[in-house]
């Protein structure tokens, strides 16, 4: 009697907990997330076609061949059945082929880098449509959203009009994070010095949760924000509200914002440096640092050689104690152009020097003939 009571209480508690769950992943509000939910459901059903019969047969054989059943057939010499082998191997094979085909198709159709071709299942998009661009930067431990078309930025709050395609450009100030709005689309990683992309659309008005899906340290659990799906008029009013705030976001303000903080409140910026996102992406918000795209351009053209050592040694962007320790310089202090010295002489001497032998480099530089450019 007691065991039945305990079992009843456990079942009641379980169903009560499930009733309170927000199954947003299975019932999302964005078309991409809806297609992903369909994929989850179809894959689960296909796998259950094997799992359920196996579990049922396990119970059936345990009952049929129990010790007390004297009528069960006993055949100790049985070792093979072609029919049984066909069933055992063909059913899983068919399911694996079906899952493989579905995976192949959806891997391409749900590629986050692939521009959208529809608003939802019933409304296709014209090929020449232009999505709204939102630039996302994961910071420690908060989210920065830049709207280049509107010229605004927000911290820990995101908004977009309903049925409008969105192109997210995502990067990080340092540690890797994961940008995830379950109602909108799947999670996409953010990494420093790299840009990932996500195309998505929200189809219903509402306020949805967004967060980081990748552990990133002390403030990770508070790295959350609200995503507002708004009508076009509602979005325009939201933009006007952000522009009413007179905060500006330039390089100096960003370096201050970049410093680690926990439970950062929602903040608005009515004006943003249009080059800020590219500077964040190329890790050169501090203008004394060479941008990655500039260094890659030099490398593409043969590299900086010995003259480029200073560029590499100055890449201390990701050292927290170095950031914000001094005012931003008005000019850059790295090698931007190189000149070719005559063969032999200084060029030959420098070519034979061990890397980072500062004493020999200084001595060679001190005897450089007049008129020869060293590139420093």
Automatic annotation (TrEMBL):
It comes from Thalassospira tepidiphila. Residues 17-114 form the Cytochrome oxidase subunit II transmembrane region profile domain. It is a multi-pass membrane protein. InterPro entries: CcO_II, CcO_II-like_C, COX_ARM, Cupredoxin, CuRO_UO_II, Cyt_c_oxidase_su2_TM_dom, Cyt_c_oxidase_su2_TM_sf, Cyt_o_ubiquinol_oxidase_su2. The keyword Ribosomal protein does not apply. One of its GO terms (molecular function) is oxidoreductase activity. It comes from the Bacteria. Residues 129-241 form the Cytochrome oxidase subunit II copper A binding domain. PROSITE patterns: COX2_CUA, COX2_TM, PROKAR_LIPOPROTEIN. It is found in: Cell membrane. The chain crosses the membrane at residues 39-63, 84-105. This is Ubiquinol oxidase polypeptide II. Keywords: Cell membrane, Electron transport, Lipoprotein, Membrane, Oxidoreductase, Palmitate, Respiratory chain, Signal, Transmembrane, Transmembrane helix, Transport. Belongs to the cytochrome c oxidase subunit 2 family. The keyword Transmembrane helix applies.
